[in-house]
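Try this one yourself first.
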């Protein structure tokens, strides 16, 4: 138990990059946190944190060890949860695309909390490709992601069976290309005059679809401006110099201005992915909540 506590202290300090901040969150004294870190570093024979004055940073060894520490703590909690038959509170590690987190998850997670208030939820967001890798690696219990239609309809989809993952459909999204108003009623892709696309970094399914529909790889005049959020992307479109792509469900929640137009790009299914045969009580409770929210 003492070793687990030291790992918990290290993970908290690595997150805060501050002994004082971690001590406050953990309800410990800074000296106690420092002592635990020093003993942990001595026991593994490596410096985990680089100390420069009052600043802290993870060392190369610390970055590697952090991933293992998080997995060990997660497996400990999972083992207690499973052995107790769900009587011990569980932690759900769920991943999601930004769009799904913004438009779909608030209602779902509220329903999950109402039905199972004892469970904890850790939510992280990433592009679909990274989410897929994190589920396979066991960093996430499950993730909401999407594949472009070209992937689903191609022989590449057969490789999904090799990944050792299971999928179920969650929501269907209407994808739109948002661009400056051209003054044309019902514009098509040929009416898009800008040549800059604001989008998430590579690995985003929606970006991939926009690039395909606009034939961006074949036209060198197009520029991709990578953005950190949909709010930034929509703001860039409002400047009159960018187009962007997002689900209509997200766009409608933003109270968009009048100087933008929408062009439909098609429909995409958001799926919940998880490792085959992965069935902890907390994850089964979450899947049941998702099923109920979709009307069975």
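Now uncover the answer:
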């Amino acid at each position: 138990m003492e070793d687990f506590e030291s790992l918990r202290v290290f993970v908290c300090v690595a997150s805060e990059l501050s002994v004082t901040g971690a001590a406050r969150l953990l309800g410990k004294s800074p000296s106690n946190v420092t002592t635990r870190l020093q003993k942990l570093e001595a026991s593994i024979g490596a410096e985990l944190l680089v100390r420069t004055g009052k600043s802290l940073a993870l060392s190369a060894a610390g970055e590697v060890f952090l991933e293992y520490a998080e997995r060990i703590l997660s497996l400990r909690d999972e083992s207690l949860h499973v052995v107790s038959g769900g009587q011990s509170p569980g932690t759900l590690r769920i991943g999601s695309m930004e769009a799904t987190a913004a438009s779909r998850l608030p209602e779902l997670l509220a329903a999950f909390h109402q039905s199972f208030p004892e469970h904890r939820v850790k939510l992280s967001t990433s592009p679909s490709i990274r989410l897929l890798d994190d589920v396979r690696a066991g960093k996430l219990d499950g993730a909401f992601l999407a594949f472009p239609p070209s992937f689903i309809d191609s022989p590449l989809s057969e490789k999904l069976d090799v990944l050792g993952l299971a999928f179920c459909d969650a929501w269907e999204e209407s994808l739109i290309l948002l661009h400056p108003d051209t003054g044309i009623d019902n514009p098509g892709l040929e009416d898009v005059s800008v040549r800059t696309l604001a989008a998430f970094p590579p690995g985003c399914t929606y970006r991939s679809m926009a690039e395909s529909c606009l034939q961006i790889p074949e036209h060198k005049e197009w520029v991709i401006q990578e953005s950190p959020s949909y709010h930034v992307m929509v703001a860039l479109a409002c400047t009159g110099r960018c187009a962007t792509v997002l689900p209509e469900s997200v766009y409608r929640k933003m109270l968009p201005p009048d100087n933008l137009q929408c062009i439909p790009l098609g429909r995409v299914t958001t799926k919940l992915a998880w490792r085959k045969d992965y069935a902890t009580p907390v994850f089964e409770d979450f899947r049941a909540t998702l099923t109920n929210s979709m009307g069975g």
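Discussion: The longest strand covers residues 165-180. The longest helix spans residues 60-83.
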